[in-house]
Amino acid sequence: MGKQKNDLEKDQILKARAVVLAQEIIRNNEEIETIEFTEFIISNERYGIENCFIREVYPLKEYTPLPGVPDFVFGIINVRGKITSIIDIRKFFDLPSNGLADLNKVIIVHNAFMEFGILAEVIVGVHKYPMADLQRALPVLTDLRADYLKGVTLDCLVILDCEKLLNDKNIIVQEEV
Prior knowledge:
By secondary structure, the chain is of the alpha+beta class. The protein is built from 4 helices and 10 strands; from the N terminus they run H-E-E-E-E-E-H-E-E-E-H-E-E-H. Strand 1 (34-42) and strand 2 form a beta hairpin.
């Protein structure tokens, strides 16, 4: 009888410890700030944009090139009756063009004042990542790209600061005749 009592006490102690440990894990998870982003690939490099700035991902079927605009402006597309500019960030960031790219996706980003599309070769998926694990800079990034950097994951995925991109005066093209 005494052995069963000891086993019962041990079980109760272990269950109580498990409950306490589970509560600590839940509390720790609540404290971790994460960033949710969509990963995409351009020129064999991995990038991410926070999902709060993405209106939609649209397939690039037809577009209209525009004369007299900077070379990073790829053209415009009609998205359900709304004309949207498309930016080729390879050219905006002075990235090398690795031969023919299959730029067939447009990530339409927006804030309260601006909206445009960003060309992408492949949409990899949506991820959550702890903000505390983001590195602030990589030595291989050019100064221009570093200015638009939100952070870099431990596996070298560059998360762009889309708010800076959307508010950049260099992206606004206003040609008056």
